[in-house]
Amino acid sequence: MTSAASSPRTPRPVALVVIDIVASILLLFFAASLALVVITTATAYQGLTAECGSGPFEGITCNGTVLGIVTIGMIVIAVLATFLAVGFVIVNLIRRRYTFYWPVGAIVIMIVATWIGSWIAGMIAP
What we know:
Keywords: Membrane, Transmembrane, Transmembrane helix
Structural class: mainly alpha
Shape: elongated
Strand content: under 5%
Radius of gyration: 21 Å
Largest sheet: none
């Protein structure tokens, strides 16, 4: 009897390894470019409070603090998701595991963060 710890893993086919590496690299490039788009969008939101002026606005309309938190949050999420995706792809390549799902997860997180940030910025704009 052999234990599960001492039994060798069955190797993945070479074609799947090449496809996985190429897909991961392409998805990482897409994630990095999406991060730049998210950062550009977040910095564009900073100018919204300049258009507010002084007036009786209700709720969070023209709230610079909320807009600043949204801007910084979007930038941090985009940068962190991209760097974590790159790091986990490298680690999983070293461990010889599938890697394509890490950039996909980073892309989904950035899209959700951009959508939520845009929704909040839309509520702040008068």
